Structures are given as structure tokens and as C-alpha cells.
Amino acid sequence: MSQRTLDQILVEAQGLLVPFGDSVPESERLQAVVRGIELYQPGASTDYSGHLVLVSMPISGDDGLAALCAECVDAAALVLPAGTARGLQAPAAPVLLRRSPWVSGDTLIRALAGIVRDPNALEDPSEASEREAALAVRRRQSALLALLNGTSEAALPAAVVGLRPDRAHVAVAAEVPTRSLERFRLALAAEFPEECSVLSEGILLAVVPVATAETAGDVVERLGARLRRAMRSSGDLPVGIGHRVPGVYQLHESAAAAREILRALNIKLGARPLASEGAVRIASAADVDDALMIVRSGDALVPYENDLTAPLAVLADYDREYRSDLLTTVYTALEFRENISEAARQLGIHPNTLRARIDRIRELSGIDLTDPASALRAVLGFVSSKRMRALARHTIDSGDAPT
């Protein structure tokens, strides 16, 4: 059982938990010993006495808050969701806290579990040190993701990460193979010692503090030169560099730009953007203007996706039923539309076979690759539909022989 008081826990959880409302809890309540952590379960006969109770459900007005407090009146404190309206009338008990908007729920639970733990409990010193180090890493990662995704309270996570709010920064987004991740991070840190990074959904996101006169283009040159020396055998390595922002409060804008540039670098309509530069393809917005416009146009076309892709969907259904590759054929023929021999080579078939397939595609779906308007609609269909692109590229990427 924990021997820590609520007051001690709040000191150690500073920045993770914030007071709810303007009232100051009574000293007696702050000195109460916290027994542990519980997740609030509506309607369940749970004993919340002396626990920190984490609430995930939204609070519906003053009555909802009053009912919640009545059900958990013996709790040491209630931790309300980050988005809970601050103007609600708070009952006298229990103590009410709010999760800081920059910290994720799972990070908060892990952090509080470590803080509430009995300090006198027997634990191997090395295990305790590893646990605390891991917790610190998770806090920094959660704080950095909050800054990159956008938060109304940027000062707290910036302090956790160690970023100066008054200094200019640039965000970086990179698609790095797992085997090359450590080498990439070392190269990044060697060029920008004050950088900080986090892996999110397979994308490495980083923040780079920059000098007064330094631009995103300067970061492209510096980091590009470093990566080309350090990552020669890494394979394709697209890296997006967001625009310079004056402080931490706009980091999410630079991060959104870096992600968008990374998407532009991954467009494949013919050779990928900047393919002539080798494995390391690093760019700011100015370097991939055409591809960036395609990405943004594709996003704008999403509401029309079903109409644009209707002929492609006919081919996708046909491929599924007859194990053919007509959708892949359209994709490849558009990619190499000026060179039917190269398109056939990419598909592993004879040019005459490709011509026969193109005729069959026209009969089945109405897609006429010799007609500019019909071919353009097919291109827009692929641009607007991630699903169609994935289906069309499946055969190419998997190396299966077309039928």
C-alpha cells in the first residue's frame, strides 16, 4: 500500500495534473494517504476510498459532475478529462484535478503508477533506475508528440522536452527503415545536438532548434549532407523538412508541413520526386512544389473519391474474382504512358499482351487510356484514393507475376 500523501504526489506529478477550477483544496485533504489508482467505472460497485480515480468519460454539466463526485466522495482525488469545462460548479469533496492536455492517458497512468508506488517497498535498485528512466523517456515522448500535434498549453510540454519557447525551430518527418533508425538518429544528433525526436506510427518526427538567420533550406543542406555520408546503404530515405517557426507554440504547423512534404516525396507517378539525388531524398516545400500540389489536390478530391474511382472499382472487383491484374495494368500504363515497352517490362509481359489488356480494360470499365480525359480521370482516381493506389501497387510491391 502506498505511503505517499496526495500533496507529495501532486508535487511529483507537476505538469501532468493541473487543478480544476480556482478553489484550493483543504490542507487536511492534501495530507490524506493515497492508497492507489482506480479507473472510474460508471455504475460499478467499486471501492474508490483513498484512491486517485481517473475519469475518461466526458462530464455533462454541473449535474453530471455532482453525481460523479457523490459516487466517488471518499476518493483521494478525481482526475477529470483534459477537455472538461472549467466553469463547472465543483462540490467540496473529493479533490478535483484535470489531466494536462499535452499528456496522453496511458502515459499519465504509467507515471502515476510509478509515483504512487510505496517508496519503502523492496525493489532492486537497478530495476528502479530502469523504471524511472523509462518513465522519463515516455514523458518526454508524450510531451514532444503533444507539441507536434498541437496543444493549447505548449509551455509545459516544452519544459519537459527541454525546448526554449523563444527560440526558432524546424520540424522534421522521415520514413526510416527499422534497421537504419539508430544510425539516422545518430546522424541527426551529430548535426543538430539539441534535436529531440519521437517515433509515431512508423514516422520519425524530430524538432531542430535553428539559428537566427537559418532557414528550412539551410536545414535541408546541412542534414542532407550529413545523411548522405552516414546513410549510404540504407535504401530509399525520404525526409520532409517543415518551415521555420518562431517558437514552440507553432511547432505543430511546421510538423504538419513536414508530414505533408513526406507524403509528396512518396508520390509515384513515374520516378519519385528527387530520385536523381540518390537514396537520401530530403526536401523543404520549395523542393517538391509540383508533388505537394498533387498531395493537396488529392486531399481536396477526397469528397469525389467514389465517383472518380467508379471505373477503377470495376477493375478491382474483376481482379479479385478472376485473379487478374487489370488495375495494376492501368496504374503502370499511366506511370509509363510515353513508353509502352517499359510499362510492359515493369509488368513482366510482352508489349502486345499489354495492348490486348488495354483493350480489355476499355471493354470492362470504359477506361480508355488513349483518351486524355479518360486517362486523366483514372489519374485523379488514384490520386484521391489511397485504397486504389494500394490495390494497384500490391502486385508490383509483392513481386507477384501478373496473370
From TrEMBL:
Residues 326-380 form the PucR C-terminal helix-turn-helix domain. Pfam families: GGDEF_2, HTH_30. Belongs to the CdaR family. This is PucR family transcriptional regulator. InterPro entries: CdaR-like_regulators, CdaR_GGDEF, Homeodomain-like_sf, PucR_C-HTH_dom, PucR_C-HTH_sf. Residues 157-264 form the CdaR GGDEF-like domain.
